[in-house]
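To whoever is on call:

I kicked off a structure prediction for a single chain this morning and the downstream step that reads the tokens threw a length-mismatch warning. I double-checked the sequence; it's 153 residues and nothing unusual in it as far as I can see. Pasting both halves so you can look.
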Amino acid sequence: MKNSNLISFIALVGLTFLFTGPVHGQPTLREVLDETQIIDKPECAVITVGFNLRVRYKKHFPFKSGEELRIQLEPIALTPSEKEAITQEESIIPPESEIAAIDQIIYEGGENGDQFLTIFFKHPVSYTVQQGSDFRSIVIKVFLPSTTTPCSP
């Protein structure tokens, strides 16, 4: 009788593991910044800063030119792990570009809706800033000082 109880117990435990797969929680977001791409064109450079979560462009300063560009962001529909990640600070070293001349890119998180992307240029540049079409990127077009033609997309 003891052997049949033991066999039944082992069979029950085996079936439990067989029919229940591993438990997966929601993945933890550790970094807000994803990748940065720079495409140099003859008249400008197009910088795409990617994010691991959805963000909305709010505003930027200075408006047209400078050595430092501060872009205010608003995260959209955050999961619990994303809410924790947006309060962190991160920095990345961007790809090389003579036209863009970026020294550093910093994400500055805040708990009260104060999320900023700050880009430091090696010298004063002119630029435009816009929301990426996927809400996971910000697109910055950096112009040469002598440029008179618009920067193509």
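Update from on-call: the warning came from a stale cache, not from the record. Cleared it. Sanity check on the structure: Residues 17-27 have pLDDT under 50 and may be disordered.
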